[in-house]
Design goal:
heterodimer; A: 602 residues; Glutaredoxin; six-stranded mixed β-sheet; four-stranded parallel β-sheet; 25 helices; 13 strands; 42% helix; 11% strand; B: 313 residues; alpha+beta; Ubiquitin-like (UB roll); Alpha-Beta Plaits; 2 domains; three-stranded antiparallel β-sheet
């Protein structure tokens, strides 16, 4: 039975008279009591006694995002009465709660004119090519409520739709249609080779993806056993000697990160960053849908190795199926004894809590993710200090992408030497690539690092029509032309070629694509997704988009427009707080260099 | 090492533009620049607030760092080699100032104007790159921070078209001074604005009218009504103002006040940022409770019988 949540009386905060409806109150209570607030988080004060105001606000504030999700689903917006109720319950000032609510794509702060669930339609480049605006128009004409927004992480089956439920669960129509996404791994033949996708390729495996029995039957749990057998130091040294680097885009050496956190003083945290929102990226969604128990196992390994007591999953709000399967997997892992006071028989406590994002590209940036999870606006923090010393709740934190975590499982399964047999010297192992756009078979592909770009395209059925350009690394990446097909897809080769793999998106455009419109949309994406905190990015992304829009109208840039774009790019790259600003000009400038915005006029 | 009694007994040596300076451990690069006699532009930084490092106008080049680093918040470390006037630094500072100038009304931000001139910022070139069509209408409009002036009480106004989102007012209203939390940043990206919840009028919000937000605002986006009204009639004359330091008469805390007077009328009250009691912050009484000074002198009520007569034996 759920315990009713005691209402915290906050004497030092000021609220308006607006009160919640009975259903809003119920929705918030239900959302908060199923979350793991932890014992002692709720303090009931006498109304006239103010005790540790700031500290207490911080103790419960991490429940703000789940509470706002509950209000949005129940009422279709974050009403003043609902916001007051959440604020009083969690001790969050209403102005700050409002600031958080207005930060996210999925929350509304004005009353909706209808009772409908909201259909989000992606208008980013791949979905736009696949007819997203026509789809949005059709849905509207059928009487649906439609919101055109950024990438929904379903680029392999564009155009993408995500339904944000009103008094019903969120859902994705293509999930319900049982539409299978294509998964291909070219290293799957040998069991001694690392392969993240081996177990997921057979579509029939999707049915029991979340079954512990089936997971055990195909060798699941062996990484955890190996980790316990080897001990933390040996696991970290194996990860270091494997040469594993982060797969979320920054390619930071995983062993160094884990070592630093293991050496820190507790309490510590492990965070799985499943907030992939890079246009063109959908790998994390498929990994979590097809192999959720492997994700949970790998987070548990990370937790036990670095000595963390709490693991967190922060997953995109737009991924309902992956969320549901991860939740189910967490429950099974608890039943299996992997999680709990004596996690996997280690003698250490470790558990995992899951939090949903609410639509903000920036929250994939690790420090923005921490702020979002803690119940603040998803604004990145200045680094240093780094998450290894000052991460979630200011504690030492390992934050990794799911692909990175699954690679740890593979290293523990086959050993670092076998792991290094695949890939290149500088980039050992395999990489997942998300192929979308004008290729024969869009989908998720796993190849050894160093596979030439052209070979990857052939695997995916080749380019449809004549290749015009490829966007590597998504919106934060850069365009390459048809002359780049020989480029080996490794960290070192792409770096020396002046481009990037990012998290692995490969977006293919043939001669029919209007590249001006693609680039203008990418510029618009950054304008919309900048958090607004620092001046170079807040204003720079707007000025960049305006100039690109003007260049498109004239069909070619002038010299002074190009120089101004260079000036803007220089300041965004040098003076912004985080990676969003640092890379916001990359696709635009690379597209200009390839002449995709027309030939420069004097 | 810091022995834990608040006394810092270790120092770090850094090089600022080739000049060695020593500052106590824990101090920022900005403090080191100041110690080296190098003036650094700042907008979002203030000595009495926690650095938020969002304006990025104080960035410097740190040897070994891929990007520029904010001087205001980055602690100085032993052996840092810092350039404050390299081409990269000048470029980013100029662009930050240009960006703000292209988006905001900075007509009352004198310090920003001075730095803009210093770095040669030309905010007009953004509009110049957006051509007009045949009818003279811009094909692509230059987006501006546009917001009507909010006049909701007699004490101060909020003109957010001048707001550069430095977060100082939010900090002063929140954890750094007042702990009232009446305002926060709402929205995202270029549309982000300082707001009360649902933009309710200030008197309905948690605001306690301490005016600490107004005192820290660098652009005049927040302004005392006295100043706003005088500016409206062209009578705001800072050069004619005198500042008198005194102690607040309301309670026993001992807050120091600076009375800014023009034509023998109080037009603004501030507190010294380095004052040990206030750190520059005040409450509503010290900030706004000065009208009695200008009340007409007390005159006894007239009576039918002159006082001098009634006291006669």
């Amino acid at each position: 039975m759920r315990q009713p949540l005691p209402v915290v009386l906050v004497a030092d905060l000021h609220f308006s008279d607006a009160s919640p409806t009975a259903s809003e109150r119920r929705a918030v209570m239900a959302a908060l009591s199923v979350s793991d607030a932890g014992p002692g988080a709720v303090i009931v004060d006498h109304p006239r006694v103010v005790r540790g105001g700031t500290r207490r606000r911080k103790q419960m504030r991490h429940l703000l995002l789940p509470a706002l999700h509950a209000l949005q689903r129940e009422a279709g917006w974050i009403s003043p009465g609902g916001l007051n109720f959440v604020g009083r319950t969690l001790g969050v000032p209403p102005a700050e709660a409002y600031g958080v609510a207005t930060f996210y794509e999925m929350f509304r702060t004005e009353a909706p004119a209808h009772e409908l669930s909201l259909r989000h339609v992606c208008v980013d480049p791949i979905c736009a090519l696949a007819g997203a605006s026509r789809l949005a128009e059709n849905l509207r004409s059928q009487g649906h409520a439609v919101h055109e927004g950024p990438c929904l992480g379903q680029c392999e089956r564009a155009p993408a739709v995500f339904i944000q439920g009103r008094r019903e669960p969120d859902r994705v129509p293509d999930d319900e249609r049982g539409l299978d996404s294509l998964l291909v791994s070219v290293t799957a033949e040998s069991l001694d080779a690392p392969s993240l996708l081996r177990h997921m390729i057979d579509p029939s495996s999707a049915a029991d993806a979340a079954s512990m029995e089936a997971y055990r039957a195909r060798g699941g749990g062996s990484a955890l056993e190996a980790a316990l057998r080897l001990g933390p130091d040996e696991v970290i040294s194996q990860i270091s000697s494997s040469g594993l680097s982060g797969r979320g885009g920054a390619a930071f050496p995983t062993g160094i990160k884990w070592r630093a956190v293991a050496d820190g003083d507790g309490p510590k945290h492990v965070v799985a960053n499943i907030d992939e929102s890079e246009p063109g990226t959908f790998k994390d969604r498929l990994l979590c849908e097809r192999d959720p128990l492997a994700i949970i196992e790998s987070i548990t390994v990370a937790g036990l190795v670095v000595g963390a007591t709490q693991g967190w999953i922060y997953i995109r709000g737009e991924y309902p199926l992956a969320t549901q399967r991860l939740r189910h997997a967490i429950a099974q892992a608890r039943a299996e004894g992997w999680l709990g006071d004596d996690a996997a028989g280690s003698g250490q406590p470790f558990d995992i809590d899951l939090r949903r994002g609410a639509g903000a590209y920036i929250c994939g940036e690790e420090t923005a993710l921490f702020n979002s999870l803690e119940g603040f606006r998803g604004e990145p923090r200045n680094k240093p200090p780094f998450p290894t010393t000052h991460g979630l709740f200011g504690r030492p934190t390992v934050v990794n992408n799911p692909e990175t975590l699954l690679n740890v499982n593979e290293i523990l399964r086959i050993g670092p030497e076998a792991y290094r047999n695949v890939g290149t010297e500088g980039s050992p192992g395999t990489k997942l690539f998300c192929l979308s756009g004008h290729v024969g078979r869009p989908g998720l592909y796993e190849t050894p690092f160093g596979t030439p770009l052209g070979e990857l395209l052939s695997l995916a059925g080749g380019v449809q029509g004549n290749l015009q350009a490829i966007l590597l690394g998504g919106a934060a990446g850069s365009f390459v032309g048809p002359d780049a097909l020989e480029l080996p897809l490794s960290l070192e080769d792409t770096r020396s070629a002046g481009t990037t793999l990012g998290s692995g998106p490969v977006m293919v455009f043939n001669e029919s694509a209007d590249m001006g419109s693609v680039i203008e949309r990418l510029a618009k994406f950054f304008r919309d997704e900048s958090c607004g905190q620092c001046v170079p990015c807040r204003v720079g992304t707007v000025r960049q988009h305006e100039i690109v829009a003007q260049i498109r109208r004239a069909d070619a840039p002038t010299r002074s427009q190009r120089l101004l774009l260079d000036d803007i790019a220089g300041a965004m790259g040098d003076a912004s707080i985080c990676g969003l600003g640092h890379t916001a000009a990359s696709a635009v400038l690379s597209g200009m260099r390839l002449g995709l915005l027309g030939t420069e006029q004097s | 090492m810091n022995p834990g009694n608040g006394i810092v007994d270790s120092h770090v040596a850094v090089s600022i533009d080739g000049r060695e300076v020593t500052v106590p451990q824990g101090q920022t690069i900005l403090a080191a620049c100041t110690a080296a006699g190098v003036e650094t532009p700042t907008i979002c930084w203030a000595p009495n607030l926690t650095p938020v490092n969002v304006c990025r106008v104080c960035v410097v080049e740190l040897e070994g760092s891929r990007t520029l680093v904010p001087a205001c918040s980055r602690p100085a470390e032993d052996g840092m080699q810092i350039s404050t006037d390299s081409e990269r630094v000048r470029h980013s500072r100029r662009m930050v100032l240009e960006f703000l100038g292209s988006a905001n009304d900075l007509s009352q931000a004198d310090e920003i104007a001075e730095w803009s001139q210093h770095y040669g910022a030309d905010a007009r070139r953004y509009a110049a790159e957006l051509a007009a069509d045949a009818d003279g209408e811009p094909e692509v409009a230059l987006e501006l921070v546009d917001d009507p002036v909010r006049i909701q009480d007699d004490l101060y106004i909020r003109a957010y078209d001048r707001c550069v989102l430095c977060y100082k007012c939010v900090e002063a209203c929140g954890d750094d001074a007042q702990h009232t939390f009446a305002i926060a940043v709402a929205g995202r990206g270029f549309d982000a604005r300082i707001r009360t919840e649902y933009d309710v009028e200030l008197p309905e919000s948690a605001c306690v009218y301490c005016g600490n937000c107004v005192a820290v605002c660098p652009t005049g986006a927040l302004q005392f009504r006295t100043e706003f009204d005088l500016r409206a009639v062209g009578e705001w004359r800072p050069d004619d103002q005198t500042v008198t330091r005194t102690v607040c008469s309301y309670c026993g805390v001992g807050c120091n006040l600076e009375l800014h007077t023009q034509d023998e009328r109080i037009v603004k009250v501030t507190s010294p940022e380095d004052h040990s009691v206030t750190s520059g912050h005040l409450c509503i009484k010290g900030r706004f409770g000065w009208q009695y000074v200008h009340a007409p002198a007390f005159e006894p009520p007239a009576t039918d019988t002159p006082a001098s007569e009634s006291t006669e034996p």
